[in-house]
Design brief:
Layout: E1 11-12, H1 14-22, E2 26-32, E3 37-44, E4 50-57, H2 62-71, E5 75-78, H3 86-92, E6 100-101, H4 107-110, E7 132-134, H5 148-162, H6 164-168, E8 177-181, H7 188-199, E9 203-207, H8 208-212, H9 218-232, E10 236-241, H10 244-247, H11 259-274, E11 281-287, E12 305-308, H12 314-325, H13 336-342, H14 348-364, H15 372-384, H16 395-413, E13 420-424, E14 434-437, H17 448-469, H18 479-494, H19 527-554, H20 556-569, E15 571-573, H21 574-584
Parallel strand pairs: 1-4, 2-5, 8-11, 8-12, 9-10, 10-11
Antiparallel strand pairs: 2-3, 3-4, 6-14, 7-9, 13-14, 13-15
Helix pairs in contact: 5-7, 9-11, 12-13, 12-14, 14-15, 16-17, 16-20, 17-18, 17-19, 18-19
Bound molecules: adenosine-5'-diphosphate and zinc ion.
Zinc ion binds next to α16.
Length: 597
């Protein structure tokens, strides 16, 4: 659906859009930006039903619209924004999402695209554009863990709020605005609250995304209200979450020229310029994409300080777990260290959520202490979704078993692949079976051999299906694997210079401001290079696939045996799996990097 790019530069008013809807001219609607922007395809009866693509800014009563699209058979889709900023995104693409790979997904289950579901769309229309005030946040620096550098930098802000004279006496200028930059869930809001808590001042907060869905003029007047209230209560903190929603570069991208947004932004700038640095108000804003912010926001006297809030490393995760374990009853077998090691990629919010899930599970199991069993179940659940009921033994269960064992076997036999943690046929989320790998800790550099091993491992599922059941019987279950495989192979060629095309970067990371990067990745190479890239990608994938198939053929007896065992036991853990494999083949030692704690 939303494959074309920039073709929807023509805009249509919302009123016109409603007329088009009434006239039955609308065929397709793609919603972006939490439903604030729509790209509409409509036919023009006056021009031989030519298809037009138009952009509409929606005011925000979309629940009705959605049901209308559904009733009238208009094909629509909701595109959630990709939140990860380039800095965190670029390597992240290469890593498997968290520690899970090679789930056998049944594709048709995934295609029910959210109507009625808990998607973003259901938020629109709700008028929630008020700011909140908390007289006492009750949050202290001790409650924020794992981001020590950010805390240190902000310590000074607390001092300023408590003892401004210390600074003004020596003629020092106090910062007015601080920008916290980091991915969601890393504790930016918490940190801002802790500053207020430590300084003992009130905390005003509003989210940038709330401004944008309002009618023209309302946002600006809310900003005025907010600053007026804040001045009455100074010293205080004003916290603006998701500032990128109002503070995007003006006039850029498809959404350029949203009047409401610009008015709100201008008002914000005016307010910031209008008060002196020593009124005792400090504005803290949070974003995960500093790169899209309007440069006017970053000028001296505005948000001229940036503090990075990084996702936690293993030590950080341990610290966050310690904070959240304080009010939980954990049994003595629970090791927070081992949880921290098992959760690379988890944000502070994920970890808090994990311990909370485990506590809920404990209550449900009528135990009075959370044990490692509850923790393990919760990790699986946070990563891969809810547990489902296992299939009864039958052909599809056997196929899934072979598929998963395919992944697990390749993962075990290749030296550069992360070791298997467990293989299971208990469905979770949308996956019918899953092979879990022990993640190498927070790796920031990945070698070519490792990527190739991952590609081969991800192809292991399909290879097993094909070698054991034959061409005609392969299933859609490998769809997800193949997507990852292609992505990794492509990046090897176009970004990391790991193919015969040589060390060149062929993909520009042009930050398209409005719709996230996937919408328009402009290529800066010729058709000829494009086809050479395709050829290289194909060579890599074919080579890895041949390897995976060879491993399947060479280990047929072993595979049959573990598949029987897996069907009987539903879950086999990594050590047991390796032991069985070792009876048949040479299991290489893995070099895993185990960080100090
Ligand atoms: P952000 O604003 O960066 O999206 P939040 O501050 O809203 O993240 O984090 C949500 C919750 O996750 C917090 O209320 C807290 O319980 C937990 N959390 C996140 N980061 C941390 C951290 N560094 N230390 C302790 N708890 C954290
Ligand atoms: Zn798979």
């Amino acid at each position: 659906m939303a494959t074309g790019n920039n073709t929807a530069s023509t805009r249509m008013t919302y009123g016109r859009f409603l007329e088009y809807l009434d006239a039955g001219r609308v065929t397709t609607v793609d919603l972006f930006d939490s439903g604030r922007t729509a790209i509409v395809e409509a036919v023009d009866p006056d021009l031989d039903n030519r298809v037009q693509r138009l952009r509409v800014d929606l005011p925000g009563n979309a629940p009705e619209l959605i049901s209308r699209f559904r009733n009238e058979g208009i094909s629509f889709d909701i595109h959630t924004p990709r939140n990860d900023a380039a800095v965190w995104g670029w390597l992240g693409n290469l890593l498997f999402p968290l520690m899970l790979i090679g789930g056998l997904f049944l594709l048709f289950r995934r295609s029910n695209n959210m109507p009625g579901g808990p998607g973003q769309a259901m938020n629109f229309g709700k008028s929630r554009a008020r700011f909140q005030m908390e007289a006492k946040t009750g949050v202290m620096f001790d409650d924020v863990a794992g981001i020590e550098e950010a805390k240190e930098e902000l310590q000074e802000v607390v001092t300023f709020l408590k003892k401004p004279e210390k600074f003004t006496a020596v003629g020092a200028k106090i910062p007015k605005g601080v920008l916290l930059v980091g991915p969601p869930g890393t504790g930016k809001t918490l940190l801002a609250k802790a500053i207020a808590g430590e300084a003992g001042v009130p905390f005003f907060s509003i989210s940038g995304s709330e401004f944008v869905e309002m009618f023209v003029g309302v946002g600006a007047s809310r900003v005025r209200d907010l600053f007026r209230k804040a001045k009455e209560n100074a010293p205080c903190i004003i916290f603006i979450d998701e500032i990128d929603a109002v503070g995007r570069q003006r006039g850029a991208g498809i959404g350029g020229g949203n009047d409401e947004r610009e008015q709100t932004l201008n008002q914000l700038l005016t307010e910031m310029d209008g008060f002196e640095g020593n009124t005792g108000i400090i504005i803290i804003a949070a974003t995960n994409r500093a790169d899209v912010l309007d440069s006017a926001l970053l000028r001296p006297g505005r948000f001229d300080r940036q503090v990075l809030v990084d996702p936690p490393d293993v030590k950080g995760r341990l610290a966050v777990l310690q904070v959240h374990a304080r009010n939980k009853k954990l049994s003595s077998d629970v090791s927070l260290e081992s949880i921290a090691r098992r959760t690379p990629g988890f944000s502070g919010a994920d970890l808090a959520n994990l311990l909370n899930e485990a506590a809920i599970l404990t209550a449900r199991r009528r135990k009075d202490e959370t044990g490692m069993a509850e923790i393990n179940d919760s990790i699986d659940r946070v990563v891969a979704g809810m547990e489902g009921t296992p299939l009864v033994d039958g052909k599809s269960k056997r196929l899934i078993a072979y598929h998963e064992i395919g992944h697990a076997l390749v993962g075990t036999l290749l030296k550069h692949h992360d070791p298997v943690q467990k293989v299971t046929l208990i469905p979770r989320g949308q996956a019918q079976g899953l092979t879990w790998f022990m993640p190498s800790e927070d790796q920031s550099l990945i070698s070519r051999a490792q990527i190739l091993a991952r590609i081969t491992g991800a192809l292991g599922g399909r290879a097993a299906e094909q070698v054991i059941f034959g061409d005609a019987e392969v299933t859609t279950g490998a769809g997800n694997d193949l997507q990852q495989v292609t992505g990794m192979a492509r990046q090897m060629v176009t970004r990391f210079g790991m193919s015969d095309l040589g060390p060149m970067s062929l993909e520009s990371q042009s930050g398209e401001v409005f719709l996230g990067r996937d919408w328009t990745t402009r290529s800066e190479y010729s058709e000829e290079i494009a086809s050479r890239i395709d050829a290289q990608v194909r060579t890599i994938v074919e080579h890895c696939y041949d390897d995976a198939c060879r491993l399947m053929r060479e280990n047929r007896a072993l595979i049959d045996r573990v598949v029987d065992l897996l069907i009987e036991k539903e879950t086999i853990d990594g050590d047991e799996f390796r032991q069985i494999v070792a009876e048949y083949a040479n299991v290489p030692e893995k070099e895993q990097f185990i960080p100090q704690l």
